[in-house]
Design goal:
Layout lengths: L2 H14 L8 H14 L13 H11 L6 H17 L13 H17 L17 H10 L5 H7 L4 H11 L22 E2 L12 E2 L5 H12 L1
Antiparallel strand pairs: 1-2
Length: 225
């Protein structure tokens, strides 16, 4: 803020809080010098959510203590940090091979956001909007978002899941669809090879490629009945 803007802010504060009024000429000059020193980088208002009058009213309503210039300066710094925290650098229009121009454009964009001259640029939500009709039709044909060829390649790295999918494809019960009463694995999780030591504590917890027999019996029981 310029010096005359700081003087206008002090006059506004004096109307709301008479404790801030300085009647002596020297006291008023010293007060103006102090406020201008600490609020030189604080804007009077921006087009994106900052108004020093709102900061003044918020302090007077929330605190019984007289307003200090550092209170407003700290509110502005917090407001600026919040804006920069919500900002995502857009891709500059400059040539990526021109490093100086690339960085200069990023710097100008960030400075505009920090000063309140521009709104923060955020990522668009990837899940926003409806699924395209052609993608829905393709998923109905494939049956999964993972193509069969990719699923076959992943089978070596996911033996438990591969065995489960192969069993379900052959019409067998889904053994992982129920909780294992032996190792206490939750539904959807593979069984665990747990070894118990002499002290009664578990010594191993490695996942098994095949479920425990008791889990198989529990999964096939509803089908048998």
């Amino acid at each position: 803020m310029e010096r005359h803007e700081v003087a206008a802010v002090l006059a506004y504060i004096g109307r709301l809080d008479p404790r801030m009024i300085r009647t002596g000429e020297r006291e008023a000059r010293d007060q103006l010098d102090q406020w201008h020193e600490l609020m030189a980088e604080v804007p009077l208002a921006t087009g994106h959510g900052w108004d020093v009058r709102a900061a003044v009213r918020e302090h007077l309503l929330d605190s019984p203590f007289p307003l200090l210039p550092v209170d407003i300066a700290r509110k502005w710094r917090a407001h600026r940090r919040d804006r920069l925290g919500r900002h995502t650098d857009p891709t500059p229009a400059a040539d990526p091979d021109d490093v100086a121009s690339w960085r200069a454009e990023l710097r100008r964009a960030r400075q505009a956001v920090a000063a309140g001259a521009a709104a923060p640029a955020t990522h668009r939500q990837l899940t926003g909007g409806r699924v395209r009709p052609d993608i829905e039709a393709r998923l109905r044909v494939i049956g999964s978002c993972i193509p069969p060829a990719v699923r076959d390649e992943l089978a070596a790295y996911r033996p438990a899941r591969a065995a489960r999918e192969a069993a379900v494809a052959q019409g067998e019960p889904d053994t992982l669809g129920v909780r294992c009463e032996w190792c206490h694995a939750c539904a959807g999780e593979p069984c665990r090879s747990r070894r118990v030591g002499l002290d009664g504590r578990a010594r191993g917890n490695a996942p098994r490629a095949t479920p425990h027999p008791t889990r198989v019996d529990l999964a096939t029981a509803p089908a048998a009945s």
